[in-house]
């Protein structure tokens, strides 16, 4: 188990409404590599599409391969329909996924808003 912890890396994928941000960190939390769909010169509605998500995921897999990591922890933040596609691309690669953490930041109606005072 000690060997897997030394050769593991954390991939954090943050989904926003117009962009997807990928961050590779080690177990301490130091950022090793980051990219987003916006940094790849893709603009407007083409940003969040199936083709762009797969190409950026392949770029991330290549970057992990260059750093000689075999084990990966995946953290997904936000809501997007391409979460399963990213996991499918990661499973098809040489990497072995140790854990998947899915964080949804949606409130279930939450706290009541304060009424605006009218004069």
From TrEMBL:
<keyword id="KW-0496">Mitochondrion</keyword>
<keyword id="KW-0687">Ribonucleoprotein</keyword>
<comment type="similarity">
    <text>Belongs to the universal ribosomal protein uS11 family.</text>
</comment>
<dbReference type="GO" id="GO:1990904">
    <property type="term" value="C:ribonucleoprotein complex"/>
</dbReference>
<keyword id="KW-0689">Ribosomal protein</keyword>
<dbReference type="Pfam" id="PF00411">
    <property type="entry name" value="Ribosomal_S11"/>
</dbReference>
<dbReference type="InterPro" id="IPR036967">
    <property type="entry name" value="Ribosomal_uS11_sf"/>
</dbReference>
<dbReference type="GO" id="GO:0003735">
    <property type="term" value="F:structural constituent of ribosome"/>
</dbReference>
<dbReference type="InterPro" id="IPR001971">
    <property type="entry name" value="Ribosomal_uS11"/>
</dbReference>
<protein>
    <submittedName>
        <fullName>Ribosomal protein S11</fullName>
    </submittedName>
</protein>
<dbReference type="GO" id="GO:0006412">
    <property type="term" value="P:translation"/>
</dbReference>
<dbReference type="GO" id="GO:0005840">
    <property type="term" value="C:ribosome"/>
</dbReference>
